[in-house]
Amino acid sequence: MSPWVESKSAAPRRGLMGELVLNNELRLEACPSELFALFGQGDAAIGWLFGSEAPLLTPGALVRLALPLGGLARSPGTARVLSCQPNRRIDLMHETPWAGRVVCRFDPLDSGGTRLRVRVTIDDLEVARLGAELGLLDGYETGLWEVPLGLLISLSGPAGILGRSTANCAQLAVEEVNADGGVTGRAVRLVVGDDSTDPGVGAIAMRRLCRTPGLAAVIGMHSSATYAVTAPMAVAEGIPYLYTPTSEPTTEHPLLVRFGETPMDQLHRALPRMAAQTGGSRWFLAGNDYSWPRAVGATARAVIERMDGHIAGEGYLPLGSQNFEPLLAAIQRSGVDHVVSSFVGQDHVGFQRDFAAYGLRDSIRTFAPLMDDAVVEHLGESGEGTWNALGYFVALDTSENRGFLRRYSDRFGSCSPPVSAAAEGVYEAIHTWARSCRAGGGVEPTALLSGLRRSTFNGPRCCTRGGSLKSLLLGEATRSGVRVLDELPAATQAS
Questions:
Q1: What is the pTM of this model?
Q2: CATH of domain 264-390+475-489
């Protein structure tokens, strides 16, 4: 018999500071201890909340959700445990696709059952963002005393697992810029758009950002599939677009400023190093099916051929894929020594988990260009031994990085999501933008571009003027994070 007997929902109401509060109450046949034991077991049949994946209920532990979209459709989301009183109460900090709080209370009934009370709170800034994205508000409001700075990121969809730490790092950077006097005497105001890891949604979000009066620039941390659609929009509007993630080279324009690693930066030294360690020469290329993973594949092919290796197979799947079995079977049949895996976000997590469960981890080494500390948290032991080369990992041992991580923890708490390379890149881009505007004497595109040529931000990672990378870190996934193995020169810096 189902434990769900009766439910009662209260109408949504606005709380303090404009927050949105939703309450739901259910009377259940199961006693509190039985119901509590169901939480986090990954059984979608008992609902989005109790059907979550939560191996641990200790403070800071990750909770993976599948949020209902109507019918059988689900959107991946994440939360984090704030506190837990067994059989009595669970407090969660919801991270993506929206930020807020979820509180579950388990009250015993005289009948032996449980009264379950669920309270969901969404803060005022998130209410405003969601209202704009749903078309309930016409763009974003800012004051005349503020400089609006756009942030286009993935808070939902496959890449949404990187969204909250990215938003946090952006907010931290803006607060630091404002504490240092702002830009041209005005405070910077961050306005956030979510592309949902979908180019069409990204175009709508970009159009909405561009309607913000006085928008100075847009910082982008999303897929290159979205960038291919939104970059021409920024150019048409005359708005500088600072694009931060690892990405393939594309058409250049003065308004389009790129910060991230290229596939050649990541692969040109790392793949020969991996082959030298394993003694193998056979490779399989796998990833999502859009421009960036295809560019990674083309670059990997060139690097592998240059070192007399052999491409034994290649396979690409659409974003949002969940069935990796045919691809894994092909990898197993190919007899390869290495896989270059260019999957994104949740797809990356799903592929790596299934790769390990398929028994391939012990015999095949993996290089994954989007593997960082945030992804490793989702993988646990199933990602052990995976390599990547990026400009940043949390384990980077510099005074600048230690200070950055301390400020992040102080601002967002010990239960905040780990900093990812993607998030740190946005942090550096915002500081670089602010310093460039100050150096150029204004927030106009000409002032920004002039200042960009002579400004430097001494952040956690190693950058030259304008944010270009000098070197990359070679990292290896462990159960507890990414271990830095070595420092490699970027392709543009290598002799």
A1: 0.88
A2: 3.40.50.2300
